[in-house]
Design brief:
CATH topology: Maltoporin, Chain A
CATH class: Mainly Beta
Helix content: under 10%
Oligomer: single chain
Shape: globular
Distance between the termini: 39 Å
Largest sheet: 22 strands, antiparallel, barrel
Radius of gyration: 27 Å
Number of helices: 5
Number of strands: 43
Length: 778
């Protein structure tokens, strides 16, 4: 696996030799499709190859060729410098670009801007750092902008932007039905989209997707259920009106899905943990639980996308109203039966009825309005605009803990205040006290109001082969949160209600200078400097008063300044190259640390994570991507290969706080290397049939899992090598294929859970799956 990227490069060179021996066809005289993709990355339509920035676009056809899309990671796996931090759960997983890094369960906004059709869809709620499934339903393309985008996109776009562009209604009669079956999961996914032209001015597009699953990998025999289950539906309806200068599209969509929760299994060596001194290793796939494990996501959205050609400029409006709810539950990896076995062997074990439930609600409104035009014979291009974001969020967290002292020789207390339950730990256990002396846990709610507005503008002036461009934006953010913590199952406050307010203003800019090379093949070089920021906020958690690291209720903005140079162009008529190098400085970097609590210190409870401005981070890296199209053996071979090398480290931290990252330590969740390769070969078999095969590889090397502090030692990220394959035939309007995800069945650790520097539990990647796919297009 480690040599696969080199092998892909060798195949590319071999194919290049074959292509050189065989004159290219007329189609091959054109630039590769990737270079010609029209994107809206600069909030106006431009060819990807003409934009002096590191931008990637993945079309719907390219996504379909790689296999079924089951999440955000499938959208981004071939984009250089971009990583999807997959933690099994949609609520916890997130996107990282370049040196942004990711931290599990921070509750902060993402350093990568998440947009759908140009509208901001991220939030600081649980699940707000990842796209929802409805976002990538019936896509036209995925656009990825790397580097700070604060001048054009504003808040939370300091390391880049991912914009998902939905397929609009077209003025024709078309559509498709896509049916996919995955054998090991016994999962069936059926998608149908109908596009109809009702008149010369009106077109509609209606689509739906249904998913059912009967099996899975992670089975809970206690409840005869699978934890990694996906069931539910997605629906979307659009109507487009295009007459004269006006083009307006109305979109409504929704989803109601049950999604996989995460599974962590004990991997504890003997003699490393006082509660389980004999150690404990659990089966990766058998998840015995007495509690609940699930993720349920519902979402509703309405959008109005409009363009009006004024003659001298184009007015564009993007309006979006959303409402989504995400509920998650997860329970301990120890059930009552195992806990009783542990206690009978003289080990304390863990409280088997500990239950965590999270709630994230988001009601939001987004409006962007901008005017774009050109002057002086198109030498000067300009754009002015403003946007507004209003979000009403709720972060909820329920944690069930033992209402009695949890110790060997005492019965195990559970249930609720209205229906208490007592279980023996070992034969002859002391009975549970009556009534139970302690709370059953805590239930916290933190309503958040987030209001943000911006004004921005861009100018681009071209003189001969030289182009100078600038972007400028003013942003203002206000956040107000109220935290209420109750004793679980009651209306009794555990701590007094508190409210916090956060407000900040920022001015961001980007300046780019580019030069079109006077060569026979198209190419340009560029240099740019830009800034961006990630909005600060409030830690919606509570901590113990005796915590070694005092809990902070709020944290401020982080700001990034980045410098980049790059080249993009054709090495040959059918080979397109992109290369960039960058360096950035992030001040007041938002960092996740713990309050230092544990069961064995004065807190007598587990640690609480919270966000803090942890110091200054320096990042640097290089990225290269090559796309080629060759005629081989009577067919067409499309080759893509890329690699990125990056590092981000803390160069200083505040000296007035403990528990912060160690100087010169790496930012968490940034692999030193990310790479991917894709080979897609299509060849006519006869006049009615075309065969195809697609191989996709993505991998990573190096990096650390969590922030390294004096009490949290280094934990390395796992090296990853994942190969997927899809092959089949196309017969007129029908495409039949078989596919394999994780073809080589690589077993990788996605998360190594630690307690006081000792490994306790692991989360793994998904094993190999095989499936079949049938698509009918008209």
């Amino acid at each position: 696996m480690r040599n696969l990227l080199c092998s892909a490069a060798a195949v590319s060179m071999l194919a290049g030799g074959v292509a050189a021996a065989q004159p290219a066809t007329t189609d091959n005289d054109k630039v590769t499709a990737v270079g010609e993709v029209v994107v809206t990355a600069t909030r106006r339509e431009e060819s990807l190859r003409d934009i002096p920035a590191t931008i990637a676009a993945v079309t719907a056809d390219q996504l379909a060729a790689t296999g079924p899309v089951s999440g955000t990671g499938d959208l981004l796996r071939t984009v250089p410098g971009v990583r999807f931090n997959d933690l099994q759960s949609n609520n916890l997983s997130e996107v990282s670009i370049r040196g942004s890094g990711t931290q599990r369960a921070t509750g902060a906004d993402s350093g990568v801007g998440l947009f759908v059709n140009g509208a901001y869809v991220g939030s600081s709620t649980l699940g707000g750092r990842n796209f929802r499934h409805v976002d990538h339903f019936d896509l036209e393309r995925v656009e990825v902008l790397q580097g700070p985008q604060g001048g054009l996109y504003g808040r939370n776009s300091e390391f880049g932007v991912v914009n998902l562009v939905s397929a609009k209604p077209r003025f024709n009669r078309s559509g498709y039905v896509n049916a996919t079956y995955i054998g090991k999961l016994d999962q069936t996914k059926i998608t149908g989209v109908i596009n109809e032209q009702l008149s010369d001015e009106v077109a509609i597009r209606i689509g739906a997707q249904g998913i059912t699953q009967a099996k899975g990998f992670h089975y809970n025999p206690n409840q005869d259920s699978y934890i990694d289950d996906t069931d539910g539906w997605i629906g979307r309806a659009q109507i487009r009106f295009n007459k004269g200068p006006l083009d307006i599209n109305f979109l409504v969509d929704a989803q109601d899905l049950d999604l996989p929760s995460f599974v962590a299994v004990y991997a504890l060596a003997p003699g490393r943990n006082a509660q389980i001194p004999q150690g404990l290793y659990q089966d990766r796939y058998i998840a015995r639980r007495d509690g609940d494990d699930y993720v349920k996501q519902t979402a509703q959205r309405a959008m109005i996308l409009a363009d009006y050609d004024l003659g001298w400029a184009t007015l564009t409006s993007t309006s979006m109203a959303t409402h989504w709810i995400s509920r998650q539950a997860y329970s301990p990896s120890i059930d009552l039966a195992l806990e009783q076995q542990l206690q009978q062997s003289g080990q304390l074990g863990a409280y088997p009825f500990g239950q965590v439930r999270t709630l994230a609600k988001d009601r939001g409104f987004y409006q962007d309005l901008h005017l774009a035009g050109s002057s002086y014979g198109d030498k000067l291009e300009w754009l002015v605009g403003a946007d507004y974001l209003l979000q009403h969020d709720v972060n909820g967290l329920d944690i069930a803990t033992s209402p009695c002292v949890f110790r060997i020789g005492a019965s195990i207390c559970a249930g609720t205040p209205a229906a208490p339950v007592c279980y023996p730990g070992v034969p002859g256990s002391a009975p549970c006290p009556t009534p139970f002396p302690n709370p059953f846990g805590t239930s916290s709610r933190a309503p958040l109001r987030n209001e943000s507005y911006s004004a921005y503008g861009t100018l681009k002036y071209k003189v001969g082969d030289v182009t100078l461009a600038g972007e400028l934006r003013y942003s203002h953010d206000d956040k107000i949160v109220t935290q209420s913590v109750y004793r679980l199952y009651t209306l009794e406050l555990a701590v007094p209600v508190v409210s916090y307010a956060f407000a900040a203003e920022r001015v961001n800019y980007t300046v780019t200078l580019s030069y079109d090379l006077p060569t026979s093949l198209p190419g340009l070089v560029y240099g740019k400097v830009g800034t961006g920021y990630r909005a600060g906020g409030v830690n919606a958690r509570i901590s113990h008063p005796a915590a070694p690291n005092p809990f902070l209720p709020t944290y401020g903005n982080e700001d990034t300044t980045s410098y980049e140079v790059g080249y993009k162009g054709n090495l040959a008529r059918n080979i397109f190259l992109r290369f960039s190098a960058y360096a950035s400085r992030t001040q007041d970097a938002i960092t996740t640390i713990t309050d230092g609590c544990s069961l064995v210190n004065a807190c007598m409870q587990g640690a609480t994570q919270f966000n803090i401005n942890g110091g200054t981070v320096h990042a640097r890296g290089v990225e290269a991507a090559l796309d080629g199209r060759f005629q081989v053996g009577g067919g067409t071979l499309n080759v893509s290969a890329n690699a990125a090398r990056q590092r981000a480290r803390y160069v200083d931290t505040p000296d007035n706080y403990s528990g912060l990252p160690i100087i010169d330590s790496s930012v968490a969740q940034i692999p030193k290397w990310t790479m991917s390769a894709q080979l897609n070969y299509r060849r006519p078999i006869n006049t009615q049939m075309t065969g195809f095969v697609n191989l996709t590889y993505n991998g990573q090397r190096g990096g650390v899992q969590d922030t390294i502090t004096p009490t949290a030692p280094r934990v390395d990220l796992s090296d990853l090598d994942v190969v997927s394959m899809r092959t089949g035939v196309e017969i007129k309007k029908v495409e039949l294929a078989v596919f394999a995800q994780n073809l080589t069945n690589q077993t990788e650790v996605l998360l190594n859970l630690q307690a006081n520097g000792v490994q306790t539990a692991l989360r793994f990647n998904q094993p190999r799956t095989f499936g079949v796919n049938a698509i009918y297009r008209w």
